Amino acid sequence: MQDQGKTKLPLTQSQLSIWASQKLQPDSPSHNIVYTFEIEGPLNTTVFKRAFANLTAETDIFNITFGENQGEPFQLKTDITKFELPILDVTSLSEKEVEKQIYEKTLEPIDIGHQVFDALLLQKQNSTIWLLKFHHLVTDAISYQILYRRLSVLYANLMSKEVEDKNIPGKYLDYVLFENDAVYREGFSEHSDYWKEKSLQAVDEIKFYGEKKAPNTTAAERIIVNLGSKRLEKLKTVSQLSQVRGWTPSLTLYNIFMTVYASFIHRVTGSDHIAIGSPSHNRNEPKFNNTPGLFVEVLPYYFDITEKESFQSLLQKVKIESNNFLKNVSPGMVGNVKDQQIAAVLNFINAEFPDFHGMPTKVKWVHNGHIDDSHDIRCHIFDFEGDGDYYIAFDLNTSVFNEEKRRVVPQHFLLLLDAFLENLQSEIASIPLVKPTFSDESNFPQQNSSKTKTLYEEFKLQAEKNPNSIALQSKAETLTYRNLFHKVDILANHLISNGVQRGSKVALHLQRSTDYVISVLSILKIGAVFVPIATDQPLERLKYNVHKANCSFLLCQKEIPLEIAFTNLNLFNWSKPQPENFDFKISSEHQLSYILFTSGSTGNPKGVAISNGALINYLHWAKITYEVDDKSIFPLFTSIGFDLTITSLFLPLISGGKIIIYPEKSSGPDTSLLDVVTDNLVNTIKLTPSHLALLADRDMSTSKIDIMILGGEDLKVAVAKKLKNQFHPQLRIINEYGPTEATVGCIYTEFDEARHDQTSVPIGKPIDNTQVYILDQHMNMVPNGVQGELYLSGKGLAEGYVGEHELTTEKFLENPYSQQTKIYKTGDLARRNTNQELEFLGRIDDQIKLRGHRIELSEIEAQLLNIEGVESCSVVVVSGNKPANNQETTNCVKCGLPSNYPSTDFDELGVCHLCRAFESYEEKAHRYFKNDNALVQLLTSKREENPNYDCISLLSGGKDSTYVLARLVNMGLKVLAFTMDNGYISQQAKVNIDKIVKNLGVDHVYGKTPHMNEIFVDSLHRHQNVCNGCFKTIYTLSTSIALEKQIPFIVTGLSRGQFFETRLTEELFWDDHLNTEKIDQTILDARKLYHQENDAVKKLLDTSMFDDECVFEKIQYVDFYRYSDVSLDEMLQYLKDEVGWVRPTDTGRSTNCLINQVGIYVHKKELGYSNYSFPYSWDVRLGHKTREETLDEINEVIDETEVKRIMSEIGYSKEDEEGGANSDRLVAYYTGNPGVSVKQLNTTLREQLPSYMVPSQFKQLNELPLTKNGKVDKKALQQLTSLQIELDTPYEAPRNEIEELLEGIWKEVLKLDKVGIHDDFIALGGHSLAAIRVTARLNEEIETNFPLNKVFEYPSIKAYANYIEKTLTELLEN
Amino acid sequence: MKDKISNYIIHHIAKQKIEAIHADDDLLADGLIDSLGMMKLVAYVEKEAQIKIPPEDLTLENFMTIDHILEYLANHSTT
Hints:
- The structure holds 2 protein chains of 2 kinds.
- Chain A has 44 helices and 44 strands.
- Chain B is mainly alpha-helical.
- Chain B starts with a helix and ends with a helix.
- In chain B, 25% of the residues are buried.
- Chain A binds chain B through residues 187, 245-248, 250-251, 280-281, 284-286, 289, 319-320, 323, 326-327, 329, and chain B through 11-15, 17, 28, 31, 34-40, 42-43, 55, 58, 60, 63.
């Protein structure tokens, strides 16, 4: 083999990934690989040193160094390193101190530009430790085996000169060349295809025990366990089974460990689709068998673990996967899988280290506390001694695995290994990983608790204690405890005389009022059960609930239509009954208190029956925890049908506090909360996070509220933080979790900014007498941190669902962890975080929470299916696509483009994709621009025909357009200046304009339209700015003047950056032979389409002249800055010297127009970035602005008060601003008879469902999209934008390649996630510039030359695809 | 086919230098070829015989010796 001498060689694929990783973490020692060999016996160290010198001389990896040339790494063989092996006498040191010395050696950085290895001899009493350290760039585990064996031979030779010496290690650089050439070798592309396909496999985001790895962390701990003889015996037996056995005993073991490892990952991450990296040793070619160096490449295994997967079935998958792995590994393959994230690695090390010249040797791979930053976990299995006793080492990234987790990882792994060895047929999911322990002893039911009082008794106690305190207060009346007690007495007697008795179910169909509270208490006094049904419920639902709960009485305040008067139901209106005397004695733990209806998945609501004991348990706990006493004042302002209202209803009454009652609004949404905060009378409040939206932008700093209990939905940390600021820092914020079935609240936490730093506030810990279990689908407890389903047990559980025995046994199960108790299956997903607080992680089914309302989507779907003509349907929640304002944005380091600009992609240097792409066509783009002479030539070319003026110059009064006008005059042209008075030109700008035209001596006209404000509003809706509408008005009015006065040219002052916003696109420069005439023609075509767009300008102004295309021959539009190149400084100097222009100080900097900032405000609010970001980034790219100037302007502070004033002035309402599209809403998709109208669906559902359950949009589809598993693809349905749903065309996915190609292009250009083949291009927001891009991309893709206007002629994917097909067929036939 | 297979083994996948290999030599015994070599051999045989061997047929019983491989091919050849 040739000597590579001093040639610089590129790195192998495997070296490249390590090099890149080291480059990212220059100080991390994670790529230092250290082995120690402790040789026991009389080692001759002098001979050893000579042998080692010989080894370093004959083996090239000792002498390879690395360098970098313009960012490209290279390696080369340097001169033989003069390295003298140091000997350290450690005889006096303890074992620990020696280990410390070794450990410190592993941390010393390796300077790969100088020497890639280090070595040391440590002389102990009876043994010598040889330490050999390499950078991973030139070594792997087998290399150490080769070097060790070789050194042993070299040592023996020097000692006795008799050992056979022909097995000289090979040269690594030969392999480097071999690998570099791999692409030319047979099978390379076939293997590459295999790995490329693998790397496209979808994998779940991996979170071990629920934790995500912190970025750029390498710190790790290595935990080593020994299998032990018992397991080894079993392993041997199982390995012999024919269904287990692989090609070789090591492959068999490897497959077993891979199966157990995948099972382990599946169980402790909850992921079903997992990738595991595993090194391929890669010494495939016999010639490299004995070559040290970095050969290994880590390549991925993929597993889809199914629901009932057994060890046996997974092992079969592993066997197939490992065979395919082996079949397709070859040098260089790792280059195909670089982008794939591999969090877990399994490394089966097949290296053995025999005696050293007859002396037994202990081999150690020393861990230095760091691993590659892309790995969460690495599992190494090795048997260096070759005696069949395997060790397993887990390297665990410490940001993922805290100390507790690092301790349980080997336990869980071995539990699964044991289960595997015990019974191959076991279902992986069925193996319990956690032994049930009851850490929450204090929360266990106190079986012999003192006899519980009833709620009424508690109230009575307070009435006796504080008879004169105010209990209830409303606009209509105020009641003291004495008054209230008295009234309750009267009503109770009245009810009894009408037949209500203990256990009777009494429906309350009442407004929030003192009457409501009196009714509730009276019913409880009797020992009857109250069934609150809010007055906003549709009649059908009222009827259903009354029936289902078996109510025999109904209390109401207004006439109920007679049809509800069922048999046996006593219906009476609230009136003033007369007192009668009865004495009541009732008290029992399981006596029912109330029945509350919640959404049910079968299409009907279900009634949850709550006992007195459950209610009292919650209230007692809440009273203490929330410190409720006779000074507490609660508002009663939420729906009586909501279980969170129970808190506000009873807590004050059992504590001597006060309730302020806010009745429902007579119409529209219930905004009682606004009255609550305006009155500012209460100090404690219970509400949902959604309610808080009503308080946005309100000054709450003087609010008396000092404790706020939030329940009903996920509470975001950002929301809680904002509350503290909005109210006062002492505000106590409680996050309370609890399904109706567990009585109001059963898990809670108090928000603590220091502890709660994730996205959501955890739900916390269980309340008194409540137990929480997180279980998997086999009812096994999941390990700490792992996600599972939340189960609840304890005093707060409901008795069940009324009249639904089956459903009750389905949800309230026998508790496997505590005899004779029930546990309730919540359907909520949760985990315990490292603080032992519970985190809510979503739903198992499709129950959702919308503005605090618990909704079963299947209930809505069931109701929809009842409607004739609806065949199938699916209801989804579509989230409002408000940009995340708190998201941090960065700006491109070159042009300043913000990172939240749609589809931007920044490279590792922080340069945006537009800048990168521009590099490739910059030269061509510059050819589009011309010079002053060409401009004069053009503008004077039609002088003969038009004697009055050469051109119209569009003058806004800003610096750019003023400069244009001045220069045109300076060029000797006859100019008419045109200024659009849009009503918002600043005063100073007007003065400027008048002065300029006077100074320059040019004629000047103003353009005006009474429709300007409507045009602004339309532009804000269409483009989220005002400029588009204004520009179009300018073009329309100036063209009309040009026609009238026969002026052949209109000169604009658009900046070069603005060309790229309005005229030019990257696609125009794709053509290899750039033809500016062709570009001009395309731009002109686009302009023709532009004036045909059906916007406010077309509707409100006279645009008839554009109907005749000859207008574009008579009038030409010329961009001044296409011809003139001037820097900002030059321009300002010129304006100062020649024109006397001064910068207006009464506007924002970007403009001299006052309304402009409304556009910027709306654009930023709706899209998250300024509308100037894009054109200014082009100004920077083209050298007309600096990045700093751009950033200053796009980050300018906007005067919101002024913006709001102008908004109301032009008629852009608040409703427009916060449009319905920006909040979460229900959308129903259905198939069936096209004759079914949306109105009909809406009306029918309103009769059955409360308004918050009626979808806000309905969309008919030809068929519902399905997932691979044949379920309705709800995700796909959620991707349609509100614009697309509003289109009256049904959604249909592309059906063939051409349609798919078109969809791909449309999606990219229109920035949509999905496009149906019937959707209209213009309705989707397509405009002329988008047409240029779509057409250019299409022409590039299929090498055609379709004209621009075809997009508008065939405005749907289906129509355009037909057109393409027809054209192509014609082409082929001719 | 027999010669092709033994040549491939000798020149490309054998872990030790060998001069010849017999049709009834146990390929996996004594580490002559490892599992990686075995799968390379499978790939080679698939290409040469132009067949696709299903995963469940990749067993020791079918691939232990060159004879076994030839027998398997004889039984599964498409032509």
